[in-house]
């Protein structure tokens, strides 16, 4: 919790970020960021809403500039998606997440990690092989990995990409539909996707206590999840009231600043220790 709040002043340093973005707009700049090991992987816990126990963690990338400033992903992921280099970042994240899980499992830590996958990464012919090889390289069981794909990324999926997800699903990898409820035509294709989890977008959680319409949408997603035997995660929970509201709607798992902000791996290990000591 402390770390990201501490980073906030530098997070918004406009001059540094302008320079950083100019760098990442060029392919050479992005490769340099990878080669110089300037990306960091932070982790945000997902908890059981009833007893607040840790169920898994989501891996979220940050870019550490030589100045020490930290660039949040919404500043560079869209650019990397534009110039095609997102696949390299996503693969670095996947490997780093598995490496961290390996370290943690040997210390008896929690078992599951979720990584975000861009549509372009999924498009790659060797997507399934990459995931398989990364898992086996770090001796991570497929069941310990969850892939988060946004509803928008999945909206215009072709059969080939659905088959890739199904192959991973059949191996035991979890597949989550991220930012659920913000895209379109979800209901018409949801039953064709090999997904295991729906992540209710933060925008429905924001006003869930005061807006009956948002509570109604959430309730509808809950019944949808039940009917399709999907797990449900609510993201962006910031208050006790939101949490209680979600518990009363029978949402089991959640994520948000109320429980923990994203944090570096060492701090996450500390957090888990503090929570369960
Ligand atoms: P996302 O996958 O929807 O991740 C959730 C975002 O919400 C994260 O922002 C997280 O820090 C933030 N968040 C979590 N709980 C709360 C809360 O209670 N309140 C508020 N206000 N925010 C909360 P972050 O880490 O800045 O990431 C932004 C987006 O960047 C992610 O949204 C994801 O779409 C993308 N992203 C991050 N890492 C990767 C990656 O490795 N690969 C790809 N392709 N995309 C990534
Ligand atoms: Ca996500
Ligand atoms: Ca999300
Ligand atoms: Ca989001």
Reconstruct the topology from this structure.
Elements: H1 2-11, H2 14-25, H3 27-35, E1 39-48, E2 54-64, E3 70-71, H4 73-82, H5 86-106, E4 113-116, H6 119-123, H7 127-137, E5 145-150, H8 151-155, H9 159-171, E6 174-180, H10 186-189, E7 197-200, H11 202-206, H12 212-227, E8 231-234, H13 240-248, E9 253-254, E10 263-264, H14 265-276
Parallel strand pairs: 2-4, 4-5, 5-6, 6-7, 7-8, 8-9
Antiparallel strand pairs: 1-2, 1-9, 1-10, 2-3
This protein binds ligand C2E and calcium ion (3 copies).
Domain EAL: 23-276
Protein name: Bifunctional diguanylate cyclase/phosphodiesterase
Describe the structure.
This protein is 51% helix and 19% strand. Strand 8, helix 13 and strand 9 form a beta-alpha-beta unit. It has helices at residues 2-11, 14-25, 27-35, 73-82, 86-106, 119-123, 127-137, 151-155, 159-171, 186-189, 202-206, 212-227, 240-248, 265-276; strands at 39-48, 54-64, 70-71, 113-116, 145-150, 174-180, 197-200, 231-234, 253-254, 263-264. With 277 residues, the protein is α/β, with parallel strands linked by helices. The longest helix has 21 residues, at 86-106. Helix 2 (14-25) packs across helix 3 (27-35) and helix 7 runs parallel beside helix 9 (159-171). The model is unreliable at 1-10 (pLDDT under 50). It has an eight-stranded mixed β-barrel, surrounded by four helices. The protein is built from 14 helices and ten strands. The site of ligand C2E has 23 residues, from strand 2, helix 4, helix 5 and strand 6. One calcium ion binds next to loops.
